[in-house]
Design a protein that fits this description.
Keywords: DNA-binding, Repressor, Transcription, Transcription regulation. By secondary structure, the protein is mostly helical. Helices cover 77% and strands 0% of the residues. It folds into 2 domains: 2-56, Homeodomain-like (Arc Repressor Mutant, subunit A); 66-195, Tetracycline Repressor, domain 2 (Orthogonal Bundle), CATH 1.10.357.10.
Amino acid sequence: MADKNETTHRSENRTHALILAASHLLAEKGFEGLRLWEVAEQVGINHSTLHHYFPTKEALVQAVVLYITQRLAETATPTGGTPPDQLRVHLHELLRRTQAEPELFAALHEIGLRAQRDPGIRATAELREEEWYMFLVNTLQEGIKQGMWPEDLDAQAVAFAIMALMKSISVLPPGGAEQAVQQLERWLMKEVKESNG
């Protein structure tokens, strides 16, 4: 039994390593530069062995899309405190990740471009984006309900604006991400103060 568990664990580690390598190459070279032999080489296996884990390039790409969108979706969970506090924590965690894991955002940008032409990638990405969007809308609507933001604040439009900003982070100049998030936060907190009179 221990041998079977060990084999399963090794297989999961190898699968994860392949996804990470493909994610890194996607961020670095885009979809057009993503080569299976190079992914295999980075993990230390041969090209044919990779196909035991991912039978096609599309299967690997789907796994990468799921991994990246899951990593970013982890930031969209209520953290306690007021809705503005929850939104602030979310924005700061996203900003921290842009600095700690810039390749995630570069890959996310590539996914967004490819999703326009690839229905499979679009479906996987949209599923996660819907969760993110609903977190933002629900947080904003709860803040409006509690009188922390003005009643005429368009929660859906603000949610889309936040998503658009975060998805384009990788193409901003150095320091641009931090400035953009800080400005967004200042605007949202100004709305809180004005709503509270």
